[in-house]
Amino acid sequence: MKLAVRGDDELAQAAAAAGATLTDAETADLVVTVGEAEFVAVARDAPETPVLPVGADLGPFSLSPARDDLEDALDSLAAAEGSAVAHPVLSATVDGDEVARGVLDAMLVTSEPARISEYEVDFGDERVTDFRSDGVVVATPLGTHGYAHAAGAPVLQSGTGLAVVPVSPFSTRSSTWVADDDVTLTVARDDGPVSLVVDGAELQFVEPHQSVRLRVVDTVDLWRLPEMRLDRLEKL
Question: Which InterPro entries match (predicted)?
Answer without folding.
Answer: ATP-NAD_kinase_N, ATP-NAD_kinase_PpnK-typ_C, NAD/diacylglycerol_kinase_sf
